[in-house]
Automatic annotation (TrEMBL):
Specifically binds 5-hydroxymethylcytosine (5hmC), suggesting that it acts as a specific reader of 5hmC. It comes from Ciccaba nigrolineata. Residues 41-52 have a biased composition (Low complexity). InterPro entries: 5hmC_binding (IPR052181), EVE_domain (IPR002740), PUA-like_sf (IPR015947), THYN1-like_EVE (IPR047197). The keyword Nucleus applies. It is found in: Nucleus. This is Thymocyte nuclear protein 1. Pfam families: EVE. The lineage of its organism: Eukaryota, Metazoa, Chordata, Craniata, Vertebrata.
Length: 242
């Protein structure tokens, strides 16, 4: 039996060009704002040297060529703690994913146009960070991969589902989902506060996280990552936590 809808966009503000955008009630304004506020004081002295060491290694590997700004990886937010939405618990942690048959599930419930478009851009085999959101300590806990590209999200037609959309038609569905499969846990939990420390330093010295969407469009539950962003964040699992 599939899990109820549990992945969503909270308070996304991206759709000003589409005034008819339906923002699901699971897209409340507070969760990601709270996450950002929790991370406003990054660990002191934790970032610049790490970026320079990482850049030195990457330059030696690539001949110093800058990568083009293309998105080939993703960050997917999901809530690991119980929260009722229209009487349905929308909790879905990485442990819940691991408990699924073949450790695979559909990523449903996205009701923001920009996030939906990112879902539709995902390609088979691409990897994504699994990010625990709207919890005591948000951050990256694991890696998943795309095992089925975008197809209609069935929850938009289910009147009992928290993400039901009466304006969507089966002949022209508004909302899409993909299937993801668990790959592995990260070697350690990588908290939002640590990633933010690097982001702030990179804004000053031109590091790979300077434009990371986790901080520029933090409310989106589906976010693209460049190759450099993905590789840098992945390198953090090798470092001791601050």
């Amino acid at each position: 039996m599939p899990w109820p809808s549990r992945k969503r966009d909270k308070g996304a503000v991206a759709d000003k060009k589409e005034p008819d955008a339906k923002i699901a009630k699971t897209e409340e304004e507070t969760p990601d704002k709270e996450e950002e506020e929790k991370s406003t004081k990054p660990p002191a002295g934790s970032s610049k040297s790490g970026w320079k060491n990482w850049k030195k290694t990457k330059d030696s590997d690539s001949g110093g060529e800058e990568s083009k700004l293309t998105y080939c990886h993703w960050l997917l937010k999901s809530e690991p703690e119980s929260r009722l939405e229209k009487g349905v618990d929308v909790k879905f942690s990485i442990d819940d994913l691991k408990a699924q048959p073949n450790q695979t599930t559909f990523w449903d419930g996205v009701r923001n146009y920009q996030a939906r478009n990112f879902l539709r851009a995902m390609k088979l085999g691409q990897q994504a960070f699994f990010y625990h959101s709207n919890c005591k300590e948000p951050g990256i806990v694991g890696i998943v991969k795309i095992v089925k590209e975008a197809y209609p999200d069935h929850t938009q037609f289910d009147q009992k589902d928290p993400h039901y959309d009466s304006s969507s038609r089966k002949e022209n569905p508004k909302w899409s989902m993909v299937d993801v499969q668990f790959v592995r846990m990260t070697k350690r939990f990588i908290p939002l506060s640590e990633i933010k420390a690097h982001h702030l330093a990179h804004k000053a010295d031109g590091g790979p996280l300077k434009n990371m969407m986790l901080f520029t469009r933090q409310r989106l539950s589906i976010q693209p990552l460049t190759q450099e962003e993905f590789e840098f964040v992945l390198s953090l699992e090798e470092e001791k936590p601050h």
